[in-house]
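Holo model, zinc ion. Inputs:
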Amino acid sequence: MPTPAFPTLTDATPAALCVLASGSSGNCSVLLRRSERGVRGTLIDAGLSPRRTRRLLAQRGTPLRSIDEILLTHLDSDHFHAGWMRELDRGVGDLRATLLVHERHAKRLASIATPPQRTEYFDDTIHISGARVDAALLSHDQLGVAAFRFDFDGGENASLGFATDVGRPTDELVTRLHGVSTLAIESNYCPVLQRESPRPGFLKARIMGGSGHLSNEQCARTVKRIVPRERVVLLHLSRQCNTPERASAAHLGEHYETTVTDQHRSTGWIPISAALGAAPPLPAPLMLETLPLFGERQRSDRSCR
Ligand SMILES: [Zn+2]
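Output:
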């Protein structure tokens, strides 16, 4: 397979996203953007082994030395492969990245192994080369999950929203990600396939109970309220309880382009463009925040299916 060209980043397209893999067996995306230090990169989640990540990055023409940080949404094993704890101190080829972890996940990280020397904890706002990142902690199992909004330097209103494993759509999620150029969001399951599946009842309840995952319909309704300007990237499809056709059908006829991600096949480079025109008006609140942020504890399961 020929090496896909490293994306050309310009004022009009200051950043690009490639989802290397997405699903219950491992999630990892690479985000490249322009900065004063040249093209810099971030891994969003590191749920693949360091070896596989290195191979996929090479296939996408991305030099390891361009990756400055690994930014984690949460620490479930499909979002953070324990092999990185060792490898980050040792160095993976040319990779010398800082691990960025939400402060609420600090104890969980320490329970896996001694955190790498270059570990930093964030609460709400992070500054990385070429972008400002605003994080929101949303409901997912006991410790919650971080969703991110990236606003890129120099590209007018060029922005990316990234939300996976969100328990349910909330006003905070909509408000934080509202009007982004590109929105990457999970579309985990079809409720019909979920109910009909042979999965145990506790697992179905966890996934559908408001602190697990978004269904295709919940995803589409949330996207409608966020109003992404150009593109939607559908993340974390369940192998057992979803299909690409069902996930994308919920977005038919909408104004944005849709990319469906895959567990075993990387996407191409998805351009993140400067947005033209005024931001769309914020929708009326749903008032879902009146629900508790973290749902009742379901049975522990370190991979989120
Ligand atoms: Zn997950």
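Residues 252 and 258 are 9 Å apart (CA to CA). The chain has a mean pLDDT of 86.
Archived with the compound record.
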